[in-house]
């Protein structure tokens, strides 16, 4: 049995009186692609942000490679964040830097790469996401699909072991969704461990190893895509699927 | 008013620092009077004076260089020579002189000062070096209307604020309004504009003004004065008995040989002549240039250090977490509130006179420090606003890449925040060009200070003001053009 790369134990998170995550215990194995789906406001983003401690859990544990993030000091948490790339719904590219600079910043400032090394690596990644001709463009001049691919390249530049995606295509015009999903699919094919929050059911069916259905602060179901879409066990999931598959 | 303010500030400082106080003075008197040896060891004697009172002391342009001259400077030179030390003359407003003496900014004050009982309480005076009298300067066209102080019923008489003349004019006239101004040249200007009917001043000064301005005339004052009121003496810090005794030898010589009337006054008169031959503003371009230089030095340095302080303060104000961080945040907030809630003028005086008790800072340095401390508080608020206006997603993206909070701030947030705060920083810079004029009160030769000197040198009241107005405008206009250029450039990328 392989050792899990992410282990979540009795994770709970409240904002004031609002208990968003109630009690979550799950694990992610290396190379797995997890797709998290569920109704809006169900705590998916909060859950993802707890995985790299952008959000501090109220209780419970989140371990990466056996290290419990909730017990580590800031410095070590920063180091472990390098291992978990994150892609946001709203891209969050640095608007004052070119595409190339966006990608080079963290490798140079955090990993201490030389300018030449970082530049070379950035170009490789831009080729991977088909955007090398936009290296010197500023983010504002990019389409949503291009911006999100740059964001993925930027996260990959830290050579993470895991990639977290929070609704990466929700802010895109429909015709651009495909180009981003293709990049993600390729990543999955290369063996990247991924946790993806998405409403793209096609992607979930074809790429996911496991589907986690999340609602009301719990992971209600954890099953294979085939099982989940054919035989949703909980009423909550049946209800959800009937709404989106119509 | 400024004088009262200064006195209260000194009083508070004295209490705060435990410096001075009567106990200290008595001990100094009795046991440890090293005043004389201290000066001799130092090798220089710093004389404080307010050089807008010709022929006592005034600025003259000698071989293209401005320097302070006058009979008081000659007295100071004799004293220094007799002590075997070098004389250094420091100029400041008359109101600041005694404070400067008490806080050790200067070693002695010679500025046509009368040893009044009130002053004697705070400083030690030498014997008298000069005994003059008082006159009233009027417009020549009014000659015949006014005979002496009693002719000004229903009229306004002017006198230098803080001077003996001011108090006596109030006491010894009835139904006459007494108007006080800091500088005699302002009073003369007011006289020529018929805002006031006469200016009471010491006779030698009156003579100088009348000799240099054909529209003026002088009449005797007929003030009823005790001997003490019409005389001038040298002031030293309280408890400098040894030094005063020594200097009294020089002063007695001056008095006995009538050096003031025989040598010093004629010499001063010569300066006055060369000084007023050419009163065109062009002739004083060097004085104005110095003013512009200092104004720019102060503004640029204060903006630079103010910005650094502002960054630190704004970051401190965003600290959260453990009690130490909370305490720092609280302190930074308190500092910002305090600075924004007190006048810059008071801060400038506090730094110069107050901090001066601990470290002896030159006026220019004090001015820059005070303005930077002030500006930092405002800049901190601009920066905080700029940082808060950067989208939270930027921080999340940077942190998710493994960047520390410090690196995130430095490489991601601040560069974007700067863009937002640049316009306010530019405004702050332009404001400082104008507000730096406040350090003229501690004698820094920035533009306002220089214009006052030119005014008292040329006896022309308006022209120098017009010149500096134009100069200020040129500076602020140029600065705003340059800043706009950078702003546009930044908006491009
Ligand atoms: N920083 C926050 N402060 C307070 N409430 C929050 C915060 N972030 C999320 N929430 C609340 O948590 C709940 C779950 O939000 P989220 O995790 O974004 O759900 P999802 O991503 O599934 O739509 C929502 O009710 C939201 O209002
Ligand atoms: Mg969400």
TrEMBL record, chain A:
Gene3D superfamilies documented for this protein: P-loop containing nucleotide triphosphate hydrolases
Keywords: Amino-acid transport, ATP-binding, Cell membrane, Membrane, Nucleotide-binding, Transport
Gene Ontology, cellular component aspect: plasma membrane
Compartments it resides in: Cell membrane
Gene Ontology MF terms in the entry: ABC-type amino acid transporter activity; ATP binding; ATP hydrolysis activity
UniProt membrane topology term: Peripheral membrane protein
ABC transporter domain: residues covered: 6-241
Main location, first listed in the record: membrane
UniProt key word Nuclease: no
Pfam families in alphabetical order: ABC_tran
Protein family according to the UniProt entry: Belongs to the ABC transporter superfamily.
Protein name: Glutamine ABC transporter ATP-binding protein
Provenance organism: Levilactobacillus spicheri
UniProtKB/TrEMBL annotation, chain B:
Subcellular location: Cell membrane
Matches recorded under InterPro entries: AA_ABC_transptr_permease_3TM, ArtM/GltK/GlnP/TcyL/YhdX-like, MetI-like, MetI-like_sf, Solute-binding_3/MltF_N
One annotated GO biological process: amino acid transport
One GO term describing the cellular component: ATP-binding cassette (ABC) transporter complex
SUPFAM superfamilies (UniProt xref): MetI-like, Periplasmic binding protein-like II
Keywords noted in UniProt: Amino-acid transport, Cell membrane, Membrane, Signal, Transmembrane, Transmembrane helix, Transport
CDD domains: TM_PBP2
Residue ranges occupied by any ABC transmembrane type-1 domain in the UniProt entry: 292-480
Membrane association type: Multi-pass membrane protein
Signal peptide annotation: 1-30
Annotated Pfam families: BPD_transp_1 (PF00528), SBP_bac_3 (PF00497)
UniProt GO MF annotations: transmembrane transporter activity
Transmembrane segment boundaries: 294-316, 350-373, 462-483
NCBIfam families for the chain: HEQRo_perm_3TM
Family per record: Belongs to the binding-protein-dependent transport system permease family. HisMQ subfamily.
Name this polypeptide is given: ABC-type amino acid transport system, permease and periplasmic component
Species the sequence originates in: Levilactobacillus spicheri DSM 15429
